């Protein structure tokens, strides 16, 4: 079991309010990703759940029990740190088994569990090496091994893939997701990378300035962002926002259209007219950055190759059903 | 140094400094070597004559030599043990966030800046004096007989003084090492359920292995030649109880005015220092390999 509930959790460092009341329900076995720009409080929130920081107010329930006064080790959670925080003088075996040793398990039982964890993570050949003799990806796996060997109620990941190169990050992303599904253990994962969030999560928590902006499944966030911040943060390239007369016609202060929902027409008459400032040809996609005069710079995405170049005139036609409307305070207008 | 020209330029610019250093080192060494083969007593000027290795035989068979060798090793070993065993807890305390931490740190480091002669005099006359010293006064408060430090436990008294001087050094090195311990590692240990004591044994102490090695190696070099503290407090006595090799050489040269024998002693001391260094590097130097 690993059901985690936050009730009005607050945290301030002196006069600085970092977390301004977070309410959240993490279902048992689900993979929840905290995502947001740097300084939004996502790591702090994770550390509060881990017990590495004390809450300033509110409750944290793990399986229905309030744990705010429970020391980290007694909460039954395990954490994978950004720097991996492996113990440099211990072998891989020592690193993975350290928590079990501290729990006072018998030596052969520790060995059995460590070897099982190592087998799951393909670390068996490296059990007697020191962390400095391992590559980045292997260190990452040792850190994960250290987390899974204790059979925790939940895993906490603090930007674990940010130190890996791009190719390895994609591979580890898949491995972590598969491992979590296979073990069925609740996981909370912090990242600033929205691609990681979209691909790994069952549910995403978007944080901004210490507040939860939206909590929902990846596609929910993509299709129905609750406000301007979520709309701008989720999706790459960013959603286009248009204000003024055009928005008013739609009964909103701001309207937003994702680059992939703009139909591109060469020398067209209707839609939003503009000149291409930059065209990026990736083969699989074509990104056009269009100077649309009073509307500002708009980004359009075309799946596949489109032979348009800087200086060409285009008109962009938004798909009517895919226009997001936001009111004056930035909240989404539905219906 | 990328090109041949810059290499030549660098070498020619370095030459005067290196040459001066070399002369600075080689002249005294050569002279010591030369004197060690002479019968050369200041009490008997004009009688210098070549005596081969006679001075070495005389120095090494002097009963004072073995005593002072033992005293040297006891002094070095005890001071090392004291500074490290007290330095670790002190460094751990200073690593904690306390009010006025910077001032406390400065005060802890202060003894290192006091000249050995001055601190030895302070210890001798203000602290350890059997009549007017602070320790005697404390003893009298409890109706105990004051200890006459430099007569009853002279070597221990010297060890205390030297350890007091070197404790700040050990503390400082260990403190900087503690500050470089990765915060996330401590947190990982906390998540792993390690108590404060286990975290110290399994995480902090292994992290300190290398700085402890550095402290041992550097302190040994200086502790082999402790002189001022002995000269000021006990003058090597009573008897030979606080005479170490350095002091023995001094007494050969400037109490008995036997320059030849003192030179031989100086060379013996160089050999001893090298032997000690060799074993130290063998024993603890492994920690320095990355």
Keywords:
heterodimer, A: alpha+beta, Rossmann fold, OB fold (Dihydrolipoamide Acetyltransferase, E2P), 32% strand, B: mainly alpha, MetI-like fold, two-stranded antiparallel sheet, 13 helices, globular
Concise synopsis of the structure shown:
With 335 residues, chain A is α+β, with helices and mostly antiparallel strands.
What does this structure look like?
The complex is a heterodimer of chains A (335) and B (290). Chain A has 335 residues and is of the alpha+beta class. Chain A has nine helices and 18 strands. In chain A, strands 6-7-8-3-9-10 form a six-stranded mixed sheet, sandwiched between helices. Chain A has a five-stranded antiparallel sheet with strand order 13-17-14-15-16, with no helix packed on it. A four-stranded antiparallel sheet of chain A has the order 2-1-4-5, covered by helices on one side. In chain A, a hairpin with a 2-residue loop joins strand 9 and strand 10. Chain A is globular and about 80 Å long. In chain B, strands 1-2 form a two-stranded antiparallel sheet. The two termini of chain B are 26 Å apart. Classes of the chains: A alpha+beta (335), B mainly alpha (290). The interface between A and B is medium-sized, with 24 and 18 residues. Chain A: Keywords: ATP-binding, Nucleotide-binding, Transport.
Note the topology.
The complex is a heterodimer of chains A (335) and B (290).
Chain A (H helix, E strand, L loop, with lengths): L3 E10 L2 E11 L4 E5 L6 H9 L6 E6 L2 E2 L10 E4 L11 H11 L4 H14 L15 H13 L5 E5 L7 H18 L2 E6 L2 H7 L2 E6 L2 E6 L1 H6 L4 H6 L6 E4 L1 H5 L4 E4 L4 E5 L5 E10 L3 E7 L5 E7 L9 E6 L5 E3 L9
Parallel strand pairs in A: 3-8, 3-9, 6-7, 7-8
Antiparallel strand pairs in A: 1-2, 1-4, 4-5, 9-10, 11-12, 12-18, 13-17, 14-15, 14-17, 15-16
Chain B lengths: L3 H32 L2 E2 L9 E2 L3 H8 L1 H32 L6 H9 L6 H12 L6 H8 L7 H4 L1 H26 L3 H9 L4 H28 L4 H6 L11 H10 L4 H26 L6
Antiparallel strand pairs in B: 1-2
């Amino acid at each position: 079991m690993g059901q985690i509930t936050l009730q009005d959790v607050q945290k301030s460092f002196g006069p600085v309010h970092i977390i301004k009341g977070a309410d959240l329900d993490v279902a048992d076995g689900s993979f929840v990703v905290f995502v947001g720009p740097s300084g939004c409080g996502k790591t702090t929130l994770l550390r509060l759940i881990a017990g590495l920081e004390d809450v300033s107010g509110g409750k944290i329930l793990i399986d229905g029990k309030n744990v705010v006064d429970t020391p980290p080790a007694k909460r039954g959670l395990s954490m994978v740190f950004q720097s991996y925080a492996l113990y440099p003088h211990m072998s891989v075996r020592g690193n993975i088994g350290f928590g079990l040793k501290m729990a006072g398990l018998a030596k052969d039982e520790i060995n059995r569990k460590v070897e099982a964890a190592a087998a799951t993570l393909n670390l068996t050949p490296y059990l007697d090496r020191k962390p400095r003799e391992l590559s980045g990806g292997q260190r990452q796996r040792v850190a994960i091994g250290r987390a899974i060997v204790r059979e925790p109620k939940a895993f906490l990941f603090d930007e674990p893939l940010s130190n890996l190169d791009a190719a390895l990050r994609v591979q580890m992303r898949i491995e972590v997701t598969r491992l979590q599904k296979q073990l069925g253990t609740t996981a909370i994962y912090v990242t600033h990378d929205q691609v990681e969030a979209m691909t790994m999560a069952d549910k995403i928590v978007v944080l901004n300035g210490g507040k939860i902006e939206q909590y929902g499944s990846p596609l929910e966030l993509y299709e129905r962002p609750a406000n301007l911040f979520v709309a701008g943060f989720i999706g790459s390239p960013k959603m286009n926002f248009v204000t003024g007369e055009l928005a008013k016609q739609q009964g909103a202060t701001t309207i937003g259209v994702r680059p992939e929902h703009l139909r591109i027409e060469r020398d067209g008459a209707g839609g939003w007219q503009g000149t291409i400032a930059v065209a990026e040809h990736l083969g699989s996609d074509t990104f056009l950055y269009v100077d649309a005069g009073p509307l500002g710079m708009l980004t359009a995405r075309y799946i596949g190759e489109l032979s348009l170049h800087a200086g060409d005139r285009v008109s962009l036609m938004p798909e009517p059903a895919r226009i997001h409307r936001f009111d004056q305070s930035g909240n989404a207008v539905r219906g | 140094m990328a090109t041949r020209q810059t290499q030549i330029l660098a070498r020619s610019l370095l030459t005067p400094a290196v040459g001066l250093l070399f002369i600075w080192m080689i002249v005294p060494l050569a002279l010591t070597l030369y004197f060690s083969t002479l019968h050369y007593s200041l009490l008997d000027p004009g009688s210098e004559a070549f005596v081969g290795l006679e001075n070495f035989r005389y120095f090494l068979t002097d009963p004072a030599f073995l005593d002072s060798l033992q005293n040297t090793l006891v002094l070095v070993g005890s001071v090392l043990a004291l500074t490290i065993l007290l330095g670790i807890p002190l460094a751990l305390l200073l690593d904690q966030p306390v009010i006025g931490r910077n001032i406390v740190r400065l005060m802890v480091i202060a003894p290192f800046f006091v000249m050995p002669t001055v601190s030895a005099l302070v210890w001798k006359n203000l602290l350890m004096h059997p009549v007017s010293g602070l320790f005697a006064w404390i003893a009298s408060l409890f109706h105990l007989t004051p200890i006459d430090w430099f007569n009853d436990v002279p070597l221990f008294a010297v060890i205390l003084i030297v350890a007091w001087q070197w404790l700040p050094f050990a503390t400082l090195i260990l403190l900087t090492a503690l500050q470089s311990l990765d915060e996330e590692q401590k947190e990982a240990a906390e998540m792993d359920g390690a108590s404060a004591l286990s975290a110290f044994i399994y995480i902090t102490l292994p992290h300190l292995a290398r700085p402890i090695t550095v402290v041992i190696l550097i302190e040994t070099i200086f502790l082999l030649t402790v002189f001022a503290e002995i000269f000021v407090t006990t003058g090597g006595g009573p008897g030979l109880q606080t005479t170490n090799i350095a002091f023995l050489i001094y007494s050969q040269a400037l109490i008995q005015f036997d320059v030849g024998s003192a030179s031989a002693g100086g060379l013996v001391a160089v050999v001893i220092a090298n032997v000690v260094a060799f074993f130290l590097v063998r024993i603890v130097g492994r920690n320095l390999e990355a």
